[in-house]
Amino acid sequence: MKRTALLSLVFFAVAIYSVAPFFWFVLTSLKTPAELTAIPPTLLPSAHLGFYRAALLERGLLGAMANSAAVAGAATAITVAIGALAAYAVARTPMRAARFYRVLLLAVAMFPQIAVAGPLWSILDALGWLNTYRGLVATYTGLGLPLAVWILATFFGELPVEIEEAAMVDGCTRLQALGKVVLPLAAPGLATAALLVFMLFWNEFFFALIVMTDPALQTLPVAIALFPGEYTMPWGEIAAASTVATLPLIALTLAFQRGIIRGLSAGAVKG
Fold this sequence. Notes:
The chain is mainly α. It is built from 14 helices and no strands. The radius of gyration is 22 Å and the shape is globular. The two termini are 33 Å apart.
């Protein structure tokens, strides 16, 4: 009983520690300029929406959100489509070779972004893809494929091979068995992989900064990071923009939390 109470207390403390910065930013976004600089700090804001108005209308946050949605959406669709084919091959590979592929995927996923920044920029520059959606979508597809393949290979591996064999006995090719039998059964895994890679792309900053230097094409993380001026730090606008950028992810996480937990748990068990 004491151990359960202690674990509950620890989990509650971790939850408070994790949520507190975002909660404070939400309160900050609802303050007036006077409340923002008040000493001692004002704990309860007056629900002032001026910072939201400034972030959305004056700082071009809506355009950045549209850029993020377009890039993250397209990259997610391509990543999941390619990742499903690769994950199916990994899942149906003999055990020892499959384990090697998964370790290789993990190693690729751990590669620091700064190590590939120079070659990536040179390739995109040679192709004329800098400051284009396709340049950032191609970059994000490479970034998200290891995660998508890892998650989907686990889901495909849980499906009995006999189901595919029965479909092929009935006349399906391997590709038809994948499309008509395996993918519908692995729909929760596809949704989980899509959601996790979308969140990865939505929050990605480093590659977006070096690929998209045109202010009209910048994504949310880069646009918010460039809010500060040379002599000013607009905390109110930054807090409002961060809140707006986070709300879609919170809504998606709450809507698909069971699928996310299942996907992460399956990866932990099978990995």
